[in-house]
Amino acid sequence: MRVFVTGASGWIGSHTVPHLLAAGHDVVGLARSDASTRRIEELGATAVRGGLDDPSVLRAAARDADAVVHLAFKHDFTDYEGAGRTERAVVQGFLDELADSGRALLLASGLAGKPGQVITEDDPTAFTGPEAPRGGSDGLVLAAGERGVAGVALRFAASVHGAGDHGFVDILARTARERGVSGYVGDGTHRWPAVHVSDAGRAVALAVDKATTGGTAAHVVAEEGIATRDIAAAIGDALGLPVASVDPADAMDHFGWLGGFWSTDIVASSERTRERLGWVPTGPTLLEDLAAGAYDHVARG
Ligand SMILES: NC(=O)c1ccc[n+]([C@@H]2O[C@H](COP(=O)([O-])OP(=O)(O)OC[C@H]3O[C@@H](n4cnc5c(N)ncnc54)[C@H](OP(=O)(O)O)[C@@H]3O)[C@@H](O)[C@H]2O)c1
User: Fold this and answer.
1) Could you say which of 79, 236, 240, 266 is the most buried, measured as most Cβ atoms within 10 Å of its Cβ?
2) Are residues 81 and 176 both part of a single domain?
């Protein structure tokens, strides 16, 4: 199949493209700069030049593809609503282009907290409507069956970790270095799920092959939920810093925009995803990665 991947040059995308190529697919990646074009070509894929605000480029690439994997997202947390508007417009454009073709649209999504409970793939999505996080794209893709599209919401664990990660764990480690202490919020018993980036890339490629008309959620989660105080302790060990509780009232001051998310209990099962995809995560756990030095670059500055 010919697979169009947005975000192919990113953290998860660059670990997904090799699995798609190994499965025998032709991969076309969206590139918004010369650097992303080079990255995509180094991975062995073809680049098409354009950005998330170029609907004609996106729709033409989708038209020529047998499947679309949409991983790009504007990670501008100072304008999260704007990012959501773009996301919704992009996904609606893909759905219009793929309508009634049975072709697949897979998109990156996240896991919404249901504190104290385990989120499963069959729970109703918390992300519906234009005002919802990520422009409600999770809800749009779960309803893709009504448009004759094979929709998959790829709900990645809060931490897609590994050497080279610049996501949430990297930000927590940088905050720890700046503050001189690795912090968790309150008693730190609330949890975050995790997956190693190599397992995440393999899950996405498997999901492309298994997508069928309708809408399904895939939980790209290897560890259901790790206590945040254990994550903070492992960051402290890795960076040689003390570990301490931060009062919930001070979380936003201490951790910035990440404070709310770092205070949230998120536990997610991937049982159905493993069954559907035949996916068995084999990579290191988050605490193993931290102990093995995957985030030591933060300590070095
Ligand atoms: N990493 C995680 O822990 C995690 C957890 C949950 C959900 N997610 C979601 O999973 C997806 C992939 O995440 P990631 O960690 O791989 O992100 P990332 O490393 O920041 O990569 C983002 C990708 O999107 C592209 N992009 C951003 N803005 C764009 C624009 N305006 N036009 C075209 N391309 C644009 C980037 O291109 P350049 O290479 O040119 O910058 C890059 O390829 C995202 O939707 C993210 O929100 C990630």
Assistant:
1) 266
2) no
